[in-house]
Design a protein that fits this description.
This protein is of the alpha/beta class and about 300 residues long. About 40% of the residues lie in helices and about 10% in strands. The protein has one domain (about 1-295): NAD(P)-binding Rossmann-like Domain (Rossmann fold, 3-Layer(aba) Sandwich), CATH 3.40.50.720. An eight-stranded mixed beta sheet has the order 3-2-1-4-5-6-7-8, sandwiched between helices. It is globular and about 50 Å long.
Length: about 300
C-alpha cells in the first residue's frame, strides 16, 4: 500500500474537524475536498470569502468558510478566535496556504511577504489554535513545505525581511525552510504533551496557480515542460493527505512524491535538506518568530 498510497487509502474521517488554509484553490482545495468526502467537517480558511464559498459549493460534505489573511496578524488573531469559539476541538490543522516568488512586497505588519505569509502567519495561527488541538487524541499539525526549501535557502537572521537586497527565489527558499524547521521544533515541544504530532509534506511540482509569479525568463520553459514534469493538483495534494490521515505517520516526518527527484508520484516518506535538521537554528528561529508575532505557544 505504501508505494501506491492514494485517496482510497484515507481512513474514515467522520467526527473529525479539519482546518485547511488556502483551501479555495489548487492543493488546498483538493486536500479539503478529499477530507470532506471521507467524512470530516472541513473549514476552508481563506483570504477571499467569496471564492471560499464558491469552492465550498463544489465540495460534497460538511464544509464551512472562515476568513483568514495570513499576511495580517490581526486577521490571524480574529480567525483563530472565531475558530476557537466554533470548535472546542480540532483534529487536523493543515497549514497549506502560501505565496511563491512574489516581487518585493511587505505584509500588513511589515514582514517580507513570503516569510510573513508562509511562515510567520502559520506560526501564529498554529500557536493560537494549539489549545484546540492538544486535548484531541490523534490530532495533527501538517505544514506544507516545498522542494524550494533546498534552493538558495538559508535563514537570514541578519536580514529576515530582505531589506538589504531581495531575491524572490531566496526569499521563498527561506520561507519554505522555515516551514520545516517550525515543524521539527514544534514536534520536539509536543512530544511531552499527549498525542498531537507535527508533520510536514510537499507536493513536488504541481500544476497550480501558485507559480503565477514565476520570473518571466522561466515561464516559457516551464510552460513547455509542465506536462512532462508536473502532476495535477489532486496528486500534489496526496503527500499532505497522507501526512494528515495515515495511521502510521509519526511526528517530525516529511512526505513527498516518491518519483524521481520527488517531482511527481505517489506519496512516500522523504528526507529534507541537512540544514533543515539543525536544532540550534530551529530553536533560534522559534524564539525570533515568537517575538515577531507576539504569539507564545502552550508547549
Amino acid at each position: 500500500m505504501g508505494e501506491h498510497w492514494n485517496e482510497q487509502n484515507i481512513p474514515d474521517q467522520k467526527g473529525r474537524v479539519a482546518v485547511v488554509t488556502g483551501a479555495n484553490t489548487g492543493l488546498g482545495f483538493e486536500t479539503a475536498r478529499a477530507l470532506a468526502e471521507h467524512g470530516a467537517s472541513v473549514v476552508l480558511a481563506v483570504r477571499d470569502v467569496e471564492k471560499g464559498k464558491q469552492a465550498a459549493a463544489r465540495i460534497t460534505g460538511d464544509v464551512s468558510v472562515q476568513e483568514l489573511d495570513l499576511s495580517s496578524l490581526d486577521s490571524v488573531r480574529a480567525a483563530a478566535a472565531d475558530l476557537r469559539a466554533a470548535h472546542p476541538g480540532i483534529d487536523l490543522l493543515i497549514n497549506n496556504a502560501g505565496v511563491m516568488y512574489t516581487p518585493k512586497l511587505a505584509t500588513r505588519d511589515g514582514f517580507e511577504m513570503q516569510f510573513g505569509t508562509n511562515h510567520l502567519g502559520h506560526f501564529a495561527f498554529t500557536g493560537l489554535l494549539l489549545d484546540q488541538l492538544l486535548p484531541v487524541p490523534g490530532s495533527r499539525v501538517v505544514t506544507v513545505s516545498s522542494t524550494g526549501h533546498r534552493i538558495q535557502a538559508a535563514i537570514h537572521f541578519d536580514d529576515l525581511n530582505w531589506e538589504r537586497s531581495y531575491s524572490r527565489v531566496g526569499a521563498y527558499g527561506q520561507a519554505k525552510l522555515a516551514n520545516l524547521m517550525f515543524t521539527y521544533e514544534l514536534q520536539r515541544r509536543l512530544a511531552a504533551h499527549g498525542s498531537t504530532v507535527a508533520v510536514a509534506a510537499h507536493p513536488g511540482l504541481s500544476n497550480t496557480e501558485l507559480a503565477r509569479n514565476t520570473p518571466a525568463a522561466l515561464r516559457l520553459p516551464l510552460t513547455v515542460l509542465a506536462p512532462l514534469i508536473t502532476q495535477p493538483a489532486p496528486m500534489g495534494a496526496l503527500p499532505t493527505l497522507r501526512a494528515a490521515t495515515d495511521p502510521a505517520v509519526l511526528g517530525a516526518q516529511y512526505y513527498g512524491p516518491g518519483g524521481r527527484g520527488e517531482l511527481r508520484g505517489n506519496p512516500q516518506l522523504v528526507a529534507s535538506s541537512p540544514q533543515s535538521y539543525d536544532i540550534t537554528v530551529q530553536q533560534r528561529l522559534w524564539s525570533v518568530s515568537e517575538s515577531l508575532t507576539g504569539v507564545r505557544f502552550a508547549v
